[in-house]
Structures are given as C-alpha cells and as structure tokens.
C-alpha cells in the first residue's frame, strides 16, 4: 500500500511537472507573441524609436552626432549651464550675477520663451553661448523623427532671432534621448550635451550656502554643471548661492568656460 501510494505520488508529481512546464512554455510563447504584436503597432519607421526615416534618403547634415556628458581633462575647467529660460522671474538675476563675477555660461533655451522674452537676453549674451532646449519643453523622445526635427528647427530659428546667436548644441528636455532625437540632431548638425553634475536645490531648502558648498565639493575637472534659470521657488536656493559657488570654485582653481570652449580645450590636450 505504501509503495503504491509512493508510486502514485511520484507519477502525479511527474505529470503535474510536465503540465506545468508545458504551461510555462505556452505562457512564454504567448508573452513573446503579445510583445511582438505590441511592437508591430509602434511607429518604428520614422517614429520615436527610429533614427531613420524609413527607406528615404537620410538628409542628416554631417552624418554624425556626438553626445557629451563631460570631458576628461587635466585642466580645472568647468562649464556652467542653465536650462528652460528665458523668463522674467530669474533669468535677469542669473545674467546679473554672471556679469558681476565675469563668468561665461551656456544657456539651453526654450524656443517659445526666447521668442516671447527676447528683450531679456538681446544684447546681454556677451561671452555666453546658447543651446537649443526644444520649442516648448515637450518630450522629444516621444515624437517621431519629422516632428522632433520641426520642433527643434522652430526653436533654433526663434533662439537665433532673439539672441543673434545660432545654437550649435542641443540638450533634450529631461535628457531624454530616442532615435528621432538623434536623427533631428544630425539634420541640424548639433552636438548633444547632457551633464555631469546637477544642482540639487531640494536637498538644501533655504540653505544657499550649504547648496553652494555641496556643488563646490562635487565638481571635478571637465564637469558640465546643470542649473535652471526658471522653475519653482526651491530653485532660488541655487541661484542665490551662485556667488558662493563661483568664488568657492575659483578658490579651488577652477576656470569657467562655455560648453563649446570646454570641448575645444579638451580636444587639444
């Protein structure tokens, strides 16, 4: 009796194991098929995931795109960058501070804001440079290739008109990249610029000195530092701490340069 029960149990286990394995296999096939069907519905040819326009001839400027987070250099060089402006809230404050301390910076501008607030920056860019940050700060990585290009082309023209400077750099909103963004950047002969270190205002509420101290300690040679000249009140912590940040970094031997200057100087080392 015990042997019979043992044999039955072993048969049951084996049968159930076989059924389970078969079910897993069928489930795997079903998952693969479901994924395949979902992927088939994506606009891959020319869509957000694609860095091509299907079978069309690829009009892509120089034919290459370089993406930069920072550079390797033995010199104590730093590129200070500001995103999302210009707006009346804080862009003039940032420009005033940079002028007072004779610091160049790179402003990644939103095209619609550049058009609407051209008076804030016209004649004030001096030794600064401009980059493209999209037309209205929508996610370029969700757009198809042609839509992303149209967005950036419109922004490019508005920034050029507002500042008298033609952007050669692109920072996509939130740093989101996709095939369509790469394709549009290539068509416009842009370099993609992200960042090495970001200001962290939320960690230092009402403490601009503490925030400045954190940034000064975190910078390394070749850093691209991300800040914002628009946003919520918390971002004022970083902007009010800019003087301490600048003097602290200079005390550490750092020289401020634009992103393009940083890339040029690193390339000749």
TrEMBL record:
Residues 76-257 form the NodB homology domain. One of its GO terms (molecular function) is hydrolase activity, acting on carbon-nitrogen (but not peptide) bonds. It comes from the Bacteria. InterPro entries: Glyco_hydro/deAcase_b/a-brl, NODB_dom, Polysacc_deacetylase_ArnD. CDD domains: CE4_NodB_like_6s_7s. One of its GO terms (biological process) is carbohydrate metabolic process. This is Peptidoglycan/xylan/chitin deacetylase, PgdA/CDA1 family.
